[in-house]
UniProtKB/TrEMBL annotation:
One of its GO terms (molecular function) is hydrolase activity. This is Alpha/beta hydrolase. Residues 29-253 form the AB hydrolase-1 domain. The keyword Transport does not apply. PANTHER family: HYDROLASE, PUTATIVE (AFU_ORTHOLOGUE AFUA_2G14860)-RELATED (PTHR43798:SF33), MONOACYLGLYCEROL LIPASE (PTHR43798). Keywords: Hydrolase. It comes from Streptomyces dengpaensis. It comes from the Bacteria. Transmembrane segments: none annotated.
Length: 276
């Protein structure tokens, strides 16, 4: 398996983001964006399996994991701004962006706003909107009254719905521990930012090649959510993973890596009929 190196990137004054890096230095840069309460660890199963054609970077977003925790700046636009600053900090001019869950929102904001920096976009279990999801409305009500420390039972329940089948030993425990690092205000402000942002509007203006990956046992996002994304992004394609839940990349990392590599190859060689 590929060796993972842990580094840190000062992206602006008072904000340093830890990140994991893996893969062949000559490979195409791929930047992974995690979702709410996760960290770079969310992509450890993928980073370990990267082929020589890909060079992966997985930053931990502000307030999450071991990243710095400013008191504000937790709306999707803030995370998108951090992503651009991260690309600058690690000297990536052009990249394939992979966003999982809510991490796909800042990824697609950057794809739409900085098309010269993005070769393609992969969205793994990403919502088109959250305002119509009763479970998310209930979560917002819960986190609004949180005090520190955040209850472990809440985090365990939150993580329990991410996968529909058993994932790698220790991964779920690691993600619970990473989520417990978030202070209550980061939970509160990040959920508030997601719920108060017009997420459908963040789908506008995306012209880069886009791959949508979705598990048909996702208890958080219905198939209709993915269709909204497909309808909004011209030429986007959908890969449905039968039997997989929300965190497809935890359940089937080998297939996700293979699909990302094939998609990158398609971007490089769009006329090749043998590339799916």
């Amino acid at each position: 398996m590929t060796v993972i190196s842990l580094r840190s990137a000062p992206v602006r004054r008072g904000l340093t983001l830890p990140y994991a890096e893996a893969g062949c230095p000559s490979g195409t840069p791929v930047v992974f964006m995690h979702g709410l309460a996760d960290s770079w660890w969310s992509f450890e199963p993928l980073l370990r399996r990267l082929p020589a054609s890909l060079h992966g970077y997985a930053p931990t977003q502000r307030g999450h994991g071991d990243a710095d925790r400013p008191r504000d700046g937790y709306a999707p636009d803030d995370f998108a701004s951090d992503l651009v600053a991260f690309l600058d900090a690690v000297d990536i001019d052009h990249t394939l962006l992979v966003g999982a869950s809510s991490g796909g929102v800042p990824a697609r904001i950057v794809a739409g706003g900085y098309p010269d920096r993005v070769s393609g976009l992969v969205l793994i279990g990403v919502p088109s909107t959250l305002a119509d999801k009763p479970a998310l409305t209930k979560m917002r009500e819960t986190v609004e009254v949180f005090a520190d420390p955040v209850p472990r039972e809440f985090v365990e329940d939150f993580m329990a719905v991410m996968a529909s089948r058993q994932v790698a030993r220790g991964l779920l425990e690691t993600m619970i521990d990473e989520s417990l690092k978030l202070p209550s205000y980061v939970w509160r402000e990040t959920v508030r930012g997601l719920m108060e942002t017009d997420l459908r509007a963040t789908l506008a203006g995306i012209l880069v090649p886009t791959l949508v990956i979705w598990g048909d046992q996702d208890d958080i996002l219905p198939r209709g959510d993915q269709q909204i994304i497909l309808d909004a992004i011209h030429g986007s394609r959908l890969h449905v993973y039968e039997g997989a839940g929300h965190a497809v990349h935890w359940e089937q990392p080998e297939r996700v890596v293979a699909d990302i590599a094939a998609f990158e190859n398609h971007i490089e060689h769009p006329a090749d009929p043998d590339i799916p």
